[in-house]
Amino acid sequence: NVSVVVSVLTLTSISIERWFAICKPLTFQQTKARVVACVVIIWLVASLTSMPRLFMMEEIHDDMFPPNVTILLTTCAPRDVAEARQYEIFLIVAFFAFPSVVMGYNYTAIAFCLWSSSKASKHLTDADQRAIVSQLMARRRTAKMLVVVVVVFFL
């Protein structure tokens, strides 16, 4: 559970960082302290939101096996099914639906930003246009790669 939440939050933070870097380059300032703080917050949130599962579950022994063997052959199930269902709904909303909306918005905004910046570069000199086109192509490749990663992750 922790690794899934960390993956989702990391992809979401990458999309936010890309949005700032591409759509708001003058206001964006990436610092090592900000990155470290983001990583620590992601791991803390993932750890804290995964802990309830530890207290919701109970060990179930299978009656087909003798008691001395069940140490190796046990399963876990929720103590309270309704509580477990509510927790799963929370996880789906908080770590699938909401991040999907955030990433969808960010990558859509990035696409519009890249599209509009390529149209605005038509009034520049050839050398400036080539430099801008080269930079835009690199940004587009990065954005495409991240969109593919996000789509594959959610599939």
From TrEMBL:
Q: Does the keyword Transmembrane helix apply?
A: yes
Q: Where are the transmembrane segments?
A: 35-55, 89-115
Q: Which Gene3D superfamilies match?
A: Rhodopsin 7-helix transmembrane proteins
Compartments annotated for it: namely: Membrane
Per the record, membrane topology reads: Multi-pass membrane protein
Output the Gene Ontology cellular-component terms.
plasma membrane
Q: Does the keyword Signal apply?
A: no
Spell out the SUPFAM superfamilies in the cross-references: Family A G protein-coupled receptor-like (SSF81321)
User: Which organism encodes this protein?
Assistant: Candidula unifasciata
Its recorded name reads: G-protein coupled receptors family 1 profile domain-containing protein
Q: Provide the family line.
A: Belongs to the G-protein coupled receptor 1 family.
Report domain G-protein coupled receptors family 1 profile positions.
1-155
Q: Which Pfam family is an annotated match for this chain, by its short name?
A: 7tm_1
Q: Which UniProt keywords apply?
A: G-protein coupled receptor, Membrane, Receptor, Transducer, Transmembrane, Transmembrane helix
Q: Which domain of life is it from?
A: Eukaryota
Give a GO molecular function annotation for the protein.
G protein-coupled receptor activity
